[in-house]
UniProtKB/TrEMBL annotation:
Transmembrane segments: none annotated. It comes from Methyloraptor flagellatus. It holds the Pfam family RHH_8. It comes from the Bacteria. CDD domains: RHH_NikR_HicB-like (cd22231). This is CopG family transcriptional regulator. GO terms for biological process: regulation of DNA-templated transcription. Gene3D superfamilies: Met repressor-like. InterPro entries: Arc_rbn_hlx_hlx, RHH_8, Ribbon_hlx_hlx. The lineage of its organism: Bacteria, Pseudomonadati, Pseudomonadota, Alphaproteobacteria, Hyphomicrobiales.
Length: 135
């Protein structure tokens, strides 16, 4: 299993609403030097909570045969699936992205379904070509 690197462009921005008291507590921990900023606290809290459910997550990943981490969808992989006449069923927890040389027609010809729990990076033309297959 691979893990997504923690580079800025490999993250997804989310917006959350936090109560004023909780936000104040976070700011207090930041001001005391426990965390460098609010985002650092929130990322750490999320990682800790996910780690507390690691066994459940691992069993679910195995049962559902999901790829974990970064899944690069290459032109060669799509061409091979198209040529075999066997559509790809791509299932990812993390980040799925298409190689720059993949065309919308090739993606449409080779992909049966694509399920991404996390983020899908695809040009608008590819998203449009496979829109009915994105789960």
């Amino acid at each position: 299993m691979s893990e997504i690197s923690r580079k800025t462009d490999d993250t997804e921005k989310i917006t959350i609403n936090v109560g004023y008291v909780d936000l104040g507590r976070i700011d207090l921990l930041v001001s005391e030097g426990f965390y460098s900023n609010r985002s650092d606290f929130i990322r750490t809290a999320i990682r800790n909570h996910l780690n507390s459910h690691r066994d459940v997550l691992d069993r679910s990943l195995e049962r559902r045969t999901l790829d974990l981490g970064l899944r690069e969808i290459s032109r060669a992989e799509l061409e091979a699936a198209r040529d075999r006449g066997t559509p790809l069923h791509i299932r990812v927890v993390g980040l799925a992205r298409f190689s720059p040389d993949v065309t919308p027609d090739l993606a449409a010809a080779a992909i049966g379904t694509i399920t991404v729990l996390g983020a899908l990076q695809a040009p608008p033309a590819i998203r449009s070509a496979i829109a009915d297959r994105i789960r």
